[in-house]
Design goal:
The chain is α+β, with helices and mostly antiparallel strands and about 110 residues long. It contains two helices and five strands, in the order E-E-E-E-H-E-H. It has a three-stranded mixed β-sheet, with helices on one face. A two-stranded antiparallel sheet has the order 2-3. Helix 1 packs parallel to helix 2. The radius of gyration is 17 Å and the shape is elongated.
Length: about 110
């Protein structure tokens, strides 16, 4: 079971009304999500780190209302407690899945 060791913040710019030709107006807003992590530290607990990342991404997706504007960006930062160049966490963050299709063992991500 992955413990919650992440904090997610969603920042949304206030909507700006832009006038176009013939006084038609449209609204624009930018939305940025930031996930700050301090993942499991034990060197052999790579599966727990992946589950913690997956839980954070799933939690972000669940908390977003269907009517919310789409995310314009996502920042995932913090202490991953692993090598980011050659770890299961880096593979999960890079391609969104692990396992036969992702090249490592058995966890598949969902879209956030």
């Amino acid at each position: 079971m992955a413990r919650g060791r992440t904090m997610t913040t969603v920042l949304q710019q206030q909507q700006q009304h832009v006038k176009h030709n013939h006084n038609a107006a449209s609204s624009t807003a930018s939305t940025l999500a930031i996930i700050n992590c301090h993942l499991e530290g034990h060197p052999r607990q790579y599966a727990a780190r992946i589950q913690q990342l997956q839980h954070a991404m799933d939690d972000l997706a669940k908390r977003r209302k269907p009517s919310a504007p789409p995310l314009n960006g996502l920042i995932i930062a913090g202490d991953f407690n692993c090598e980011l160049q050659s770890s299961a966490c880096s593979t999960y963050l890079r391609i969104g899945r692990l396992g036969r299709k992702g090249g490592l063992g058995g966890v598949h991500g969902t879209s956030a």
